[in-house]
């Protein structure tokens, strides 16, 4: 169990739904604030930003190592600097975005990408930090964020188990006691077939952390399946409209879809219930309407029991339907009106 902004996250709580703004503001603070409003209206619990400048992530270089592969579905051919320049959220926007989120009762935090971002976000009083998948190998950054004493959420896209354990070890050594680990496929968009959600229980067992999912697949099917396998936190990118485009729009949810995720993920969590087979409390009334053997025609003492005067019908109350094999051919011991549940003393 961990707590972020006063909200408990764990096995006994509904899934914690985080909406990732990322670059879907399309360079407009007005659009960013409209996304915050839409996230709040959806019922999501938190809003997350990414805090970096192009120069804190890379350098303005056009060499092959600094260029996204031509075959990439969304960003093919762009240099890293160009991509991050287009996608980053200006630091001067953070305060008004966070303020708008708080006005709506949303928990607002961010992913820092270098020490200056941690320092900046500390000044804004964020309640938690998220480590992005590519930064899981940046142990100094993880130690710095962990040393704040705030909860840490770590995405594990591309990571091997030894890298995950190293990141968690660095966080714990730096004093972090509230950790969440998110399964993630760090491709954009991601294929559901690569989600490997069956690994979630194993990830929980191996890390001892709260587990969740950072998802880049289309729609909400994958996160709902993740909830069934133990995910306590779900993170999805969100946009006002995929049709309007944007750096992350293709794998982002629109507001109505985000609202559906909030509702359906809680339903999925509720449906897990406990371990047990048998009638549920709400089924007690239904038990009265199981089939049983009833006398369906008025009969006189001495009449033969037959399929014409005794049948398996609803409601319950009579002998079980399988008892028909034993009573057919016997005789009634007394007069019996139609609508009487059959019992052994009547034959």
TrEMBL record:
It is an enzyme of class 2 (transferase). SMART domains: SAF. Pfam families: NeuB (PF03102), SAF (PF08666). The lineage of its organism: Bacteria, Bacillati, Actinomycetota, Actinomycetes, Streptosporangiales. Keywords: Transferase. Its EC number is 2.5.1.97. The keyword Transferase applies. Residues 292-347 form the AFP-like domain. It comes from the Bacteria. This is Pseudaminic acid synthase. One of its GO terms (molecular function) is transferase activity. The gene is pseI.
